[in-house]
Amino acid sequence: MRKPLSLVARTVCDLFAWFLIIFGVYVIIHGDVTPGGGFQGGAIVGSFMALLLVAHGGDRVLEWVKASIYWIMLFVGLMMFIGFGLRGIPEGAFFYNFLAVPHDVAKTMAHGLIPFSGTIGVMDIAVGIEVAGGLTVIILSMFRGIVLHDFADSRKETGHDG
Amino acid sequence: MKLKALFIAATLVLGGILLSGLDAVHPFGVPGDVAMDEYFLDHAMEERSSENVVTSIVFDYRGFDTLGESAVLFTALCSVVMLFRKGRK
C-alpha cells in the first residue's frame, strides 16, 4: 500500500480527485435544497485523501500533506456550528433559526445573500467543514499507524535474534 | 446443573411475562401518534423554507441531536488519534 500504483491509475486519480472535491462541495452547499447535507458531503470530501493515499502511496503523500490544516478545519467547523447554535439564545432558544426567511419572501428572491433556509444552510457548511477535516485526520492517522506498526514489527523480529 | 435449569426456567417465565406486558404498552407494528411527523411535513416548508425536510429536521428542529452527533465524531477522532499516535519507547 505504501508503493505508488501504476502510471494509469495515478493519472486517473489526478484527473478525478478534483471532481470528487467539487462534487462534495456541491453536496455540502446544496444541503438544504437537494438530498444530502453536511455529513454526506463531508464524507465525500474526506475520501479525497484516501484516494490520494491509495494511488500515490504513503511516502509521497505524507511528506506533502499537513495534518494541522485538517485539525484547523475540524475546530473551525465545530466552533461555527456551536456558535450559530449559541447565537439563537437571544432570539428564543438554543439552535433557534434566527436567519430563516419566510417562504413567500424567499420565492421573490428579496432576501439578499443569506441562505433562505437561515441557519440550516450555514450549519450545513459548518458540519461539512468539520466532517471533511475530521475524516481526513482519521484516515491520515490510521495510515501513519499502519506504517508505524510495520516498522515496529520488523524491528522486533530482527532484535529477537541475538 | 439443577440450579442452571431453574435459572433458565425462571428467565423464560419472567421474559414471557414482560414481553406480554410490552404488547399492552404499545401494539407491535401499529403506528403511534402521527401528529409530530404530520406537523413536520406540513410546516417545514413555510416555516424554514428548506426544500429538504430531512435537513430542516436535522439542523433545526433537532439541532441538539446533531450537536451530539458532532460530539460522537469528535470522540471517535480523538480515540483513533490516541490509538495510532507515535508512542515513546
How does this model look, in words?
The complex is a heterodimer of chains A (162) and B (89). Chain A has six helices and no strands. Chain A has 162 residues and is mainly α. Residues 157-162 of chain A have low confidence and may be disordered. Chain B is mostly helical and 89 residues long. Chain B has one domain (1-25, 32-84). Chain B contains four helices and no strands. In chain B, helix 3 (53-61) crosses helix 4. The radius of gyration of chain B is 24 Å and the shape is flat. Chains A and B meet through helix 4 and helix 6 of A and helix 2, helix 3 and helix 4 of B. Chain B: InterPro entries: MrpA_C/MbhE. Chain B: Keywords: Membrane, Transmembrane, Transmembrane helix. Chain B: It comes from Dethiosulfovibrio peptidovorans DSM 11002. Chain B: The chain crosses the membrane at residues 66-84.
In angstroms, what separates the terminal alpha carbons of chain B?
51 Å
Sheet-strand content of chain B, in percent, reads under 5%
Q: Structural class from helices and strands of chain A?
A: mainly alpha
Largest sheet of chain B: none
Low-confidence stretches of chain B: none
Sketch the major β-sheet of chain A. none
Give the percentage of residues in beta strands of chain A. under 5%
The average pLDDT score of chain A comes to 83
User: What string, H for helix and E for strand, traces the elements of chain A in order?
Assistant: HHHHHH
